[in-house]
Please model this.
Amino acid sequence: NNINYERDLKNCGYRQNITNFEEKIADGDIVISVINETSLESMDCMYEMCQLVANGHVEKRLFPIVDLPHISKRDSDAEMKYLQYWEKILGEKKKRLLNDNRNSQTLQEEIKFCSVIVNEFGKLWKYLCRTNTLTKETLMENDCKILIDEINKQMV
Model:
C-alpha cells in the first residue's frame, strides 16, 4: 500500500542503539503496535509505548492491535495487575542499585525505563480501555483494510 514503515528487527541494524530507535518510534506520527501479554510484560515494548504516551497525542498517533484474550475486561483491575507488576520490577531494581556499589549503567537505564512505564502506564491503559480497537481478527480481514484505511486518513 506504499506506506513506508520501520521495524526494530528490520531497521535497527547491527551496532545501532536500540534505545535511540525506540525513542524515535515513540516520536512517530503513526505507530502501529501489537498489545498482548508478552508486550505488556516487556520492558522494551512498554518503554516504547509509554514514551509514546509521554510524548503526547497518543489518540492520534497510536494504532493498536490488541490481542488480550486472557483479560475478560479492560478495566481498572487489569490496569492494577500490570501497574503492580511494573512497580514491583522498579522496586527490585532500585533496591539492587542501593545494595550494589558498582554503579551499573545498565541498571540505572532499566530504572529509568521502569519509571517511565510506571508514570505513563495509566494513560496508555485508559486509551486502550476507552478506544474501540476492534479485534485482531477484524483488523486482519481483507489484508488489514480497516487499519490501512485509518492510516491513510491520518497521512492526508
